[in-house]
Amino acid sequence: LIHYTDSVWSVAFSPDGRYIVSDSSDKTIQLWDAWTGGQVGNPLQGHTDSVWSVSFSPDGRYIVHIVSGSRDKTIQLWDAQTGGQVGNPLQGHTDSVNSVAFSPDGRHIVSGSHDKTIQLWDAQTGGQVGNPLQGHTDSVPSVSFSPDGRHIVSASWDNTIQLWDSQTGGQMGNPLQGHTGPVQSVSFSPDGRHIVSCSHNHIIRVWDAQ
Question: Which spans of this chain does UniProt mark as WD repeats (predicted)?
Answer without folding.
Answer: 1-33, 44-88, 90-131, 133-174, 176-210
